[in-house]
């Protein structure tokens, strides 16, 4: 189970369902936000971005499919994993759910352990994707600054070759060269770390959802 307890938005027009789900998730340590219709849900995510959304389909005025589509259209909310939690069991409903952008589809009545397993899995996957994005960005930045440092190092070495050691400028250039070399070592280490993390560690953390929920 993921150590960080995330904030989850539950969207359901049935108060009893909200109460049952809220109790299950709170007992596990999650922070809960509730909405009784699609409009409330879209307003809620503007105030607090949840890390996962449990979304009913059959709701008045705006059904769950439309809510999910609107969430996926917004840059602020499109990465939030959405799990449909509904009594609709027709194959077309399940297909439409995934087409709308959901990451999972759980049918009511649900098994509490299975639901929690799927919630934990999708939250962990979301955090893994975010971490991978940060690492890739760090690696790209290191790559970008490596070339300017190489240029500075090259010019400093060229100048040192043409200046006598007893010249006052020589010592300053030598210090510049030493500091640039230290910076290059740091960026190279960081690039190696990010490459290892994104291709090795993170790859090993990909979870089979079907196995995790059994």
Gyration radius, rounded: 26 Å
Mean pLDDT figure: 85
Low-confidence regions: 201-214
Structural class: alpha/beta
Beta-strand segment tally: 5
Query: How can the largest sheet be summarized?
Result: 5 strands, parallel
Helix/strand order, N-terminal first: EHEHEHEHEHHH
Question: In one word, what is the shape?
Answer: rod-shaped
Can you describe what's shown?
- There is one protein chain.
- With 214 residues, the chain is of the alpha/beta class.
- The protein contains seven helices and five strands.
- It has two domains: 7-110, 3-Layer(aba) Sandwich (Rossmann fold), CATH 3.40.50.2300; 128-212.
- It has helices spanning 15-28, 38-47, 64-73, 91-100, 112-161, 168-204, 209-212, and strands spanning 7-11, 31-35, 52-55, 82-86, 104-107.
- It has a five-stranded parallel β-sheet, sandwiched between helices.
- It is rod-shaped.
- GO terms for molecular function: ATP binding; phosphorelay sensor kinase activity.
- It holds the Pfam family Response_reg.
- Keywords: ATP-binding, Kinase, Nucleotide-binding, Phosphoprotein, Transferase, Two-component regulatory system.
């Amino acid at each position: 189970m993921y150590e960080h307890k995330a904030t989850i938005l539950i969207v359901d027009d049935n108060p009893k369902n909200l109460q049952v789900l809220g109790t299950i998730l709170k007992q596990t340590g999650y922070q809960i936000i509730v909405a009784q219709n699609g409009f409330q849900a879209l307003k809620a995510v503007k105030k607090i971005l949840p890390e996962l959304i449990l979304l009913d389909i059959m709701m008045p005025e705006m059904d769950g499919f439309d809510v999910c589509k609107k969430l996926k259209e917004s840059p602020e909310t499109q990465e939030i994993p959405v799990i449909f939690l509904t009594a609709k069991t027709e194959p077309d409903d399940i297909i439409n759910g995934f087409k709308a952008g959901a990451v999972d589809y759980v049918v009511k009545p649900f098994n509490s352990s299975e639901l929690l397993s799927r919630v934990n899995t999708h939250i962990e996957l979301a955090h893994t994707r975010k971490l991978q994005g940060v690492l890739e960005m760090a690696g790209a930045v290191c790559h970008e600054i490596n070339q300017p440092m190489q240029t500075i190092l090259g010019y400093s070495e060229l100048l040192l070759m043409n200046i006598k050691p007893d010249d006052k400028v020589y010592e300053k250039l030598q210090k510049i060269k030493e500091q640039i070399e230290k910076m290059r070592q740091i960026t190279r280490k960081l690039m190696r770390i990010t490459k290892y993390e994104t291709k090795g560690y993170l790859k090993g953390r990909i979870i089979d959802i079907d196995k995790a929920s059994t």
